[in-house]
Design goal:
The complex is a heterodimer. By secondary structure, chain A is α/β, with parallel strands linked by helices. Chain A has 16 helices and 19 strands. Chain A is globular and about 55 Å long. In chain B, helix 3 links the parallel strand 2 and strand 3. Classes of the chains: A alpha/beta, B alpha/beta. Chains A and B meet through helix 2, helix 3, helix 5, helix 10 and helix 11 of A and helix 4, helix 6, helix 7 and helix 8 of B.
């Protein structure tokens, strides 16, 4: 009998086309998502070499990074953004790739539409020229971000040249406390293992707290695997996974469905499978958290204080902390709840799904955004927006003074018109608090959707548990 | 792809940890459909003030380092997004080798696709090279990929590791796609068997 295998081992081994002497593999790719920012040079490369897209049927494109979140009937003001989107449209037409255009009701952030359409499926390999491709690992698919040269490689050959990653398991035991969400859990994990804690590894998330999450919550966790340095995140598929996928536009149809589920049920790790690295957290010990610095590992509880360089483990970290505090305009030792904010961003591939909007709306309901604060809600896709409107969430947000926008990546990375001004401070449900990420000089604090809504109401960070 | 065999050039010290790809090339400069021209905005927000004037304290703005070809830096370099614009910007500026204790996976991989050599070394050796790099115009390092050796300004040598296949591709400037297409029969066979085992994954991207 062969050795017990992890979920990662099973997916990897079932996709190896060829192995070179030094262990480098040629890996088959089942699903390829494409967006406007990292694909133009790849299509240009194909054109220059006279190559075709090998499997248009396994490729799906959408414009998301550059799209305006205001009225789109007027087009795009920024000529560079417009050119990138027009280039995607032309490339998809030329190479026969399905594209959800800016005005398609299914348009949205690439990592939201994949699952939503059933394009994302267990046991598959999924790539996209975007690091948050790890999101799709929530379905038990091996999903990871690639560079543009690799986008071209996949378009031309449906394969990638890869070396196997190591196995890491992060187990979160027990139940989460009230008001604590998947976002707090993944930030707590990154705070524990650090932004390079998963480098060279694929992280499988396990334990009761993970199993108890909805598919939306699982996507939030896997989404930020890259912020822990991991190549990908994975969660074993189960009945929740199958229930989410059943009946979606691109899910296996009747007949094939039973065959697919039977295969998917073989994917979870075998008993006794060995991981190269193991980390354990207790769900009950995770509080609602806020990041204070310019790295996603700079995590503190909402009830905590901003740390200082004297708490750093080494010189390099101490210097980085001093620099972060200066950039963020914070004093070591101040209470997190004393930090005032200027803007609130609710959205992104991390937290732009229906469940996120429901949690934020529950906090906003019957309350008002603090004077001087601008708060925006950007649904992750046209379908999320439509569902939220069916449920009346838009009216709750608008009544509370939030701006209700069109779907896209928006102020997660400020490639469109949505951005922070220098020195502005934002409570953001996105994934990166890097310097200038939301606009040059902007200051980003990462939080859950409920915490972002609570900050909008109070005008400073507040404990969401006081609102629910 | 440009070959990488040996390189002799000025090394610039950038002694920070966790330099992310947004710092290497901020997202607002990704609105291009070309691979070239990104060097003008390399490290934009730490290199220039908001008015576009150079920050004199930034290392690559100092006379001795304006033509640096090597970067010596801290752990987890290139973390964050998958943007290949990061190595494109480095290359366009003229940097062909980055030496650090560790790199983020996607950035590391992207470098090799563009003729940029990322070298991982233990912190103690990084500390030595960081000192070398502080010598301004005399901070010349020679990187010999064939011998897998860095020669320091004082003539001392440091060995580095690189995976054989990546080394082979870099030394010969090989196009990955061309190499993979030599395996087309194997891809065809794999695809046919995948289609019989999981037929639901074929022919349905269009709903």
């Amino acid at each position: 009998m062969s050795a017990p295998r992890t979920l990662f081992d099973k997916i990897w081994q079932s996709h190896v086309v060829d192995v070179r002497d030094d262990g480098t593999c040629l890996l088959y790719i089942d699903r390829h998502l494409v967006h406007e920012v990292t694909s133009p040079q790849a299509f240009e490369g194909l054109r220059a070499a006279g190559r075709k897209v090998r499997r248009p049927d396994a490729t799906l494109a959408v414009a998301d990074h550059n799209v305006p979140t205001s009225d789109r009937s007027k087009g795009i003001d920024d000529p560079e953004s417009a050119l990138q989107i027009d280039t995607l449209t032309a490339n998809c037409a030329e190479f026969g790739v399905e594209l959800y255009s800016m005005t398609d009701p299914r348009q949205g952030i690439v990592h939201i539409i994949g699952p939503e359409q059933g394009f994302t499926q267990p046991g598959t390999t999924i790539v996209c020229g975007d690091s948050h491709t790890s999101t799709h690992g929530a379905f038990g698919s091996l999903a990871f971000g690639i560079g543009t040269s690799e986008v071209e490689h996949v378009l031309a050959t449906q394969t990638l040249i890869q070396r196997p990653a190591k196995n890491m398991r992060v187990t979160v035991d027990g139940a989460l406390g009230p008001g604590v969400t998947a976002k707090d859990m993944i930030l707590a994990i990154i705070g524990t293992i650090g932004t390079a804690g998963g480098t060279g590894h694929v992280i499988e998330y396990a334990g009761e707290a993970i199993r108890s999450l909805s598919m939306e919550g699982r996507m939030t966790v896997c989404n930020m695997s890259i912020e822990a340095g991991a190549r990908a995140g994975l969660i074993a598929p189960d009945e929740k996974t199958f229930a989410y996928l059943k009946g979606r536009a691109l899910s296996p149809k009747a007949g094939a469905w039973e065959q697919a589920v039977a295969y998917w049920q073989t994917l979870p790790a075998d008993p006794g499978a060995v991981y190269d690295k193991e980390v354990l957290l207790r769900g009950a010990e995770i509080p609602p958290v806020v990041t204070w610095g310019t790295s996603p590992e700079d995590v503190v509880p909402i009830t905590g204080r901003v740390p200082g360089p004297n708490e750093a483990h080494d010189d390099g970290k101490a210097k980085a902390m001093t620099r972060s505090l200066e950039y963020m305009g914070l004093e070591a030792g101040m209470a997190v709840t004393d930090i005032k904010i200027d803007k609130v961003f609710i959205g992104s591939c991390t937290n732009g799904r229906i469940e996120d909007l429901r949690v934020a709306a529950a906090v906003a309901k019957g309350r008002t955004v603090a004077p001087g604060v601008y708060a925006m809600v950007v649904p992750g896709s046209g379908l999320v927006k439509h569902q939220a409107e069916e449920e009346g969430l838009d009216r709750i947000f608008i009544a509370a003074g939030f701006d209700w926008r069109e779907p896209g990546c928006s102020m997660c990375l400020a490639m469109n018109a949505d951005k922070l001004k220098p020195g502005e401070r934002c409570a953001s449900t996105s994934n990166r608090n890097f310097e200038g990420r939301q606009g040059p000089g902007g200051r980003t604090h990462l939080v859950s959707p409920g915490m972002a809504a609570a900050a909008a109401i109070k005008g400073r960070f507040a404990d969401v548990r006081e609102f629910v | 792809m440009q070959k990488f065999t040996t390189l002799s050039g000025v090394a610039a010290p950038l002694p920070h940890v966790n330099i992310d790809t947004d710092r290497i090339i901020p997202a607002r400069f990704l609105k291009t459909i070309k691979r070239t021209g990104l060097g003008a905005n390399l490290f934009n927000d730490i290199r220039f003030n908001a008015d576009g004037i150079e920050k004199p304290e930034f290392i690559l703005n100092q006379a001795a380092y304006r033509k640096a070809q090597v970067l010596v830096t801290g752990e987890n370099f290139g973390c964050g997004s998958s943007r290949e614009h990061a190595p494109w910007a480095l290359l366009d500026f003229g940097i062909r080798c980055v030496i650090a204790p560790s790199f983020a996976d996607i950035f590391y991989n992207n470098c090799f696709k563009n003729g940029v050599l990322p070298i991982r070394l233990p912190q103690a050796q990084i500390d030595q090279l960081m000192e070398d790099a502080r010598r301004g115009a005399n901070a010349v390092l020679t990187i010999d990929l064939v011998a897998q050796e860095i020669t320091r300004p004082d003539g001392g040598k440091i060995h580095f590791d690189v995976e054989p296949f990546r080394k082979h591709c870099l030394l010969n400037g090989l196009d990955d796609i061309g190499l993979t297409l030599e395996k087309r029969p194997a891809i065809d066979r794999f695809e046919a068997s995948q289609a019989s085992r999981q037929p639901w994954l074929f022919g349905q991207a269009k709903a």
